[in-house]
Specification:
By secondary structure, the protein is of the alpha+beta class. It contains 11 helices and 9 strands. The protein folds into 2 domains: 150 residues, 3-Layer(aba) Sandwich (NADH Oxidase); 126 residues, no CATH class. The structure holds cobalamin and iron/sulfur cluster (2 copies). The site of cobalamin has 35 residues, from helix 3, helix 5, strand 8 and helix 7.
């Protein structure tokens, strides 16, 4: 049945791995062991949220890790008569929809056998994918799948599907990282330390541009290059040569809509045409909160 589910995942264009649930505590311990690391911030937070409650409604027996290819999306903004093309990096606009789509087809497969799965993303998804053989780490801390590179969304599920057979590999980096430092040089905030396995998440541009507030002065104006998040340590990576052009064109905002977005204050209603365009864009509330500031950084510094 495990093989059948893996085939079903593959038939949907995704790739999966299934491991016994007993590894859940090991993942938690691995995160907790990072408590003494100088950049332990997010591992500590994630370990604290790894809690299984009775709400799950079944006894967990396996963990399912899925990687799904995820394109960059180009969004156009019209400013002073010109269209400025901005990137939304992979996985942001997939959030929610893709996770549930995959859950649905997994459950469609499992239900006739009397089993089920539930979405569970409060665990270290890269670590699970790498241990279960779906990917390898890069020096930039991202997980690479051999076909899709790092342009993926990683999904994780808990299931009562029995799983005794085990593939649990040690955590490794890609071979090509040994001779390469491209991501270290490309990182606009110097967050990747060549000899430290965890990046300095406090200064990673993504940590800063995903939350509202003024950008700190130490960030160079030309560091900004995406509507949210950052692409620099992935776009330069030889592990992504085959996937770099996986880009889709999203919506284009008119001159009026762009102007409105640039001066938008959180909580105000949008004009009707902008509200329609935002719905079409797939932008989620977290992106909308930071959009005026992030867009202004791109439009006014011309660094796109
Ligand atoms: C918090 C978080 C962030 C934080 C911290 C990221 C970080 N590197 O820790 C911030 C806001 C900075 C962030 C940024 C981004 N994120 Co993020 N983020 C998460 C989240 C919610 C938790 C990750 C986490 O804290 N893990 C804890 C840390 C400690 O785990 P870890 O990095 O795997 O730690 C192990 C490795 O470092 C490993 N290791 C690494 N190299 C080596 C080498 C050797 C030899 C060894 C032994 C071990 C080793 O050792 C550690 C374990 O012991 C996950 C979703 C999830 N639930 O997992 C998404 C997630 C990791 N993010 C994701 C993405 C796409 C991004 C961005 C690319 C978004 C963007 N375009 O800007 C950037 C990339 C930044 C970067 N270079 O890592 C994807 C990863 C996709 C991928 N291909 O790997 C995830 C899985 C979301 C998803 N569902 O798809 N993110
Ligand atoms: S850019 Fe080079 S060092 Fe960095 S993750 Fe890619 S292959 Fe590894
Ligand atoms: S996402 Fe950007 S800022 Fe963060 S480590 Fe990668 S290159 Fe550096």
């Amino acid at each position: 049945m495990k093989e059948g589910l893996l085939k079903a995942i593959q038939a949907h264009g995704d790739r999966g791995a299934i491991v016994p649930f007993s590894h859940f505590d090991e993942l938690k311990c691995e995160l907790e062991a990072l408590r003494t690391d100088k950049y332990h911030r997010f591992s500590h937070w994630l370990a604290g949220s790894m809690i299984i409650t009775d709400e799950l409604g079944f006894r967990p027996r396996s963990l399912i890790s899925v990687v799904t290819p995820s394109p960059k999306i180009i969004i156009g903004f019209t400013y002073h008569g010109k269209t400025i093309q901005c990137i939304v990096p992979p996985q942001y606009l997939d959030e929610g929809t893709k996770d549930n789509e995959v859950l649905q087809y997994i459950n469609t497969y499992l239900e006739p056998f009397g089993y089920r799965a539930a979405l569970f993303d409060k665990l270290p998804q890269k670590l699970l994918a790498v241990h279960s053989g779906l990917g390898l780490y890069g020096r930039n801390n991202l997980c690479y799948h051999k076909e899709f590179g790092s342009y993926i969304r990683i999904l994780s599920y808990i299931s009562d599907l029995p799983c005794d057979e085990d593939t649990w590999l040690s955590v490794r980096r890609m071979e090509m990282c040994k001779q390469c430092r491209a991501c270290v040089s490309a990182c606009p905030t110097k967050a990747i330390e060549p000899n430290h396995r965890i990046i300095n998440t406090s200064i990673c541009l993504t940590t800063i541009n995903e939350v509202p507030g003024e950008f700190p002065e130490w960030i160079a104006e030309n560091a900004h290059h995406a509507l949210i998040g950052c692409m620099k340590c992935q776009d330069c990576c030889p592990g992504n040569v085959h996937n770099k052009d996986n880009i889709i064109k999203g919506v284009t905002f008119s001159e009026e809509e762009t102007k409105e977005l640039l001066i938008y204050k959180d909580g105000e209603p949008y004009s009707q045409s902008l509200a329609v365009k935002i719905k079409e864009s797939g932008f989620f509330p977290g992106l909308l909160k930071v959009l005026p500031r992030n867009l202004a950084a791109l439009v006014f510094s011309n660094q796109i």
